[in-house]
Specification:
Distance between the termini: 29 Å
Shape: flat
Mean pLDDT: 77
Number of helices: 1
Number of domains: 1
Order of helices and strands: EEEEEEEH
Helix content: under 10%
Structural class: mainly beta
Largest sheet: 4 strands, antiparallel
Low-confidence stretches: none
Oligomer: single chain
Length: about 100
């Protein structure tokens, strides 16, 4: 888990059971999902403390992830397999609807 205190966000590198939507079939033999789940902690006077899912990055190649010091940039490192293996860093801008209204 990697915590980003400025915007109360955290990312979890997880390996969990693959969820299947209602009415759909899973034809893969893999029963697990490996990737990064991104959450935000929210405090509301009516509902109290809540954790909401901002999104996920499904990838079996993720080896590392990191938040920027500003808190809005999120980077994921993926490693290719094979003879000429390499690491690829991808950067994402994480902005919620509440932040775009301000």
């Amino acid at each position: 888990m990697i915590w980003e205190p400025l915007h109360d966000r955290f990312a979890v590198h997880t390996k969990s059971k693959r969820e299947i939507e209602a009415g759909r079939r899973d034809y893969s033999v893999a029963s697990t999902r490996d990737g990064i789940d991104i959450y935000q902690c929210v405090w509301n006077t009516e509902t109290g403390f809540n954790v909401k899912l901002l999104g996920y990055h499904p990838s079996e190649k993720v080896v590392d992830c990191s938040w920027s010091p500003a808190g809005e940039m999120f980077a994921i490192c993926e490693k290719d397999t094979g003879m000429m293996s390499k690491q690829i860093w991808s950067t994402f801008l994480i902005v919620t609807k509440e932040e775009t209204k301000a």
